[in-house]
């Protein structure tokens, strides 16, 4: 069973649920604070005839759930309904993305990692029949997504990438090359392209030897350097300022172009510097990939999907209607008050 979100970008709206929860807490605190100012809370609440805290909380819960199901409806959960074997002609492309904290430097706006992800997204849009895989690395390297022609899945995996996914810091390019090489078909000695995107900082000595070994196995290695050779200070989320070393000096992260150029030379690929010229770099990579000898391969993929957004939107609508018709004041109490006022 293959499930996916057609519009996974809408799932970011779920972060607003935290805003709703904070709003509920703030309103509840304000109400309690106002009651305390009037006098004893127990006695004051009795003056609010028929008012129910539980009803207020229940109405909020309905709004909370309605928003949740509404977002799921907009993202549109889909289930694969028909699978076909598609024969394509292309190249296997593995992208190794540096997610170390140095990639948060702001010498490339908005930061190095965000710009790198934008580059990958644009590259995927221009790939046609090529399979694409994703490796992430910092102090260690992991295969985030195996080779696939499902480009929407590739973008979904890409959207989850962050420096927090690898706690060990560093720039283990050598290990990233090894993990990427393992992701390719070992029986083939061509049709394989590796794209490394990194600032090259804190590289390991094994990178060149791993690049030579990968090229001997048929992998062409292209490198993308991101950042400024002059360097940029690193933001520190804990202090809201820039990161300091043990001596109190501001840590400066610099692009190591020479190392990335050496890796590209060992892998008989190209080196490109990414700053604000994203489109030019993408075109260079596409041209390099298209110039490679291509292969035919078949893959079973879902070609038709059933959408289920309508069920989630109906649930959301029902919850909103229910919230609208549930009063905070008990009806029976209100009726008693009306009857009492009508008596002579």
Automatic annotation (TrEMBL):
The keyword NADP does not apply. The chain crosses the membrane at residues 12-30, 56-75, 308-326. The keyword Membrane applies. Residues 92-289 form the VWFA domain. PROSITE patterns: VWFA. Keywords: Cell membrane, Membrane, Transmembrane, Transmembrane helix. It comes from the Bacteria. InterPro entries: UPF0353/GerABKA_families, VWF_A, vWFA_dom_sf. This is Ca-activated chloride channel family protein. It comes from Chitinophaga sancti.
